[in-house]
């Protein structure tokens, strides 16, 4: 799929989420812009759609990085796209469980998300790193670029953390039922 998307020999950073204020795409683009300054071979894949999509496309054009950002649109199965990614960014302003972060970790992706926003339950491997939204885009970029960008087999870690599909479904149901109370 990398060759289909013309992403061979590229550092592929990914994000999956609706284009809403909650998902913080504006800051995500700022982070990618800082990464791209240092890694010209970096590309950003954005999977999703939503009200803020045109605004984000305009920002990408204004920054002059439209050749480096791919807007994929809504996809019901994101696993193929996660296999193309080298890392996953998720700088949400607020979040429930952040199930997509668990999917990213299961795909072996080093993942970076908002501290004090995404619950600790989302950290099922050592691949997930929390960064404060009070930090600048430059700081996020530095932390991300300094991190080890190696994928690893995380199946056993995911299962031992209780995220085998049946127990994951049960925990997710329990999580949301507790939120409703």
Automatic annotation (TrEMBL):
Say if the entry is tagged with keyword Glycosyltransferase.
yes
Which Pfam family is an annotated match for this chain, by its short name?
Glycos_transf_1
Annotated GO MF terms: glycosyltransferase activity
Keywords of the record:
Glycosyltransferase, Transferase
**Claim: GTP-binding is one of the keywords in the record:** no
Q: Which residues form the Glycosyl transferase family domain?
A: 6-151
Q: Top-level EC class, please?
A: transferase
Xref: SUPFAM superfamilies: UDP-Glycosyltransferase/glycogen phosphorylase
Enzyme Commission (EC) number: 2.4.1.-
Q: Which PANTHER family match?
A: D-INOSITOL 3-PHOSPHATE GLYCOSYLTRANSFERASE, GLYCOSYLTRANSFERASE
Q: How is this protein named in the record?
A: Glycosyltransferase Gtf1
- What organism does the UniProt record list as the source? bioreactor metagenome
């Amino acid at each position: 799929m990398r060759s289909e998307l013309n992403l061979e020999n590229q550092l592929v950073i990914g994000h999956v989420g609706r284009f809403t204020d909650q998902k913080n795409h504006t800051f995500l683009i700022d982070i990618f812009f800082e990464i791209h300054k240092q890694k010209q071979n970096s590309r950003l894949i954005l999977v999703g759609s939503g009200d803020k999509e045109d605004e984000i496309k305009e920002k990408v054009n204004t920054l002059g990085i439209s050749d480096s950002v791919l807007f994929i649109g809504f996809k019901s199965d994101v696993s193929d796209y996660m296999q193309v990614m080298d890392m996953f960014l998720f700088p949400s302003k607020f979040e429930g469980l952040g199930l997509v972060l668990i999917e990213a970790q299961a795909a072996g992706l080093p993942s970076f998300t908002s501290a004090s926003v995404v619950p600790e339950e989302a950290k099922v491997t050592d691949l997930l790193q929390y960064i404060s939204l009070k930090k600048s885009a430059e700081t996020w970029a530095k932390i991300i670029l300094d991190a080890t960008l190696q994928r690893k087999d995380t199946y056993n870690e995911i299962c031992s953390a209780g995220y085998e599909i049946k127990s994951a479904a049960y925990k997710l149901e329990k999580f949301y039922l507790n939120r409703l109370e």
